[in-house]
Amino acid sequence: MYEFGSQAWLDAFVAAINGSKAYEEAAKDWEGDFYFILEPGGPVDVYGVRGSAEILCGVPGIERLAWYGPGPEETYVDRRARPVGVYDTSVSANYFRYSQPQETGNKVEVRWATITNGTGAGLLAAGLPLLSVNALHHSAEDMDQAGHHHHMKARAETFLNLDWRQMGLGGDDSWGALPLEKHRIEAAPLSYRFRPRPITAGDSPM
Q1: What separation in angstroms does the CA of 12 have from each of 6, 22, 71?
Q2: Which class for 11: exposed (0-12), middle (13-18), buried (19 or more C-beta within 10 A)?
Q3: Neighbours of 181 (CB within 10 A)
Q4: Which residues contact 45 (CB under 8 A, 6 or more apart)?
Q5: pLDDT, tens digit, for every residue of 75-92?
Q6: 34 in helix, strand or coil?
Q7: Gap between the Cα atoms of 111 and 144, Å rounded
Q8: Are residues 12 and 3 in contact, defined by beta-carbon separation less than 8 angstroms?
Q9: pTM over cut 0.85
Q10: What tens digit of pLDDT does each residue of 89-114 get?
Q11: In terms of Cα–Cα distance, which of 2, 53, 58 is closest to 31?
């Protein structure tokens, strides 16, 4: 397994263009349907064709989440009236204990986001142009399957979600109300794009 956030880790994704075994190893950390654009001497652009990417950061200690977008609270497409700025939180604090395990901690309209360890090393993902971002110590599957919080132990790993967007939460007039039509996602072909790169302490994400 490649060291998370290292250049070798990122280079392994580039190897997908050639179908090499290096990509097969890196793909163990990646869920989704993607293809990669590599310009000679330029950055790697990732194109998603499923609308969602969940990256498992298998190295413990990836605990800081920073983003440039609305905040500092969680935001969704129908809950986004927050000032745009650069915000920072811990991955642990990004999980809010609602009455039962469920979606929490999302950030919409994110220009860029980083997840880093205590030395400032990690991953930067820049939206082209925007992303919906989340980072938790639980996977989406963990939250879907757990009926109560005590059924779901926080993992040492970090799960980073880099999504095109999410459907709205709804509940405008009651807890059971569906999201407004404009805040839903139709079942149709889609694509989105982001640019990942390793980041270390002192690097500027801007």
Answers
A1: 10, 5, 33
A2: middle
A3: 8
A4: 36, 37, 38, 128, 193, 194, 195
A5: 988 878 899 999 999 999
A6: strand
A7: 28
A8: no
A9: no
A10: 999 999 988 877 778 899 999 999 99
A11: 53
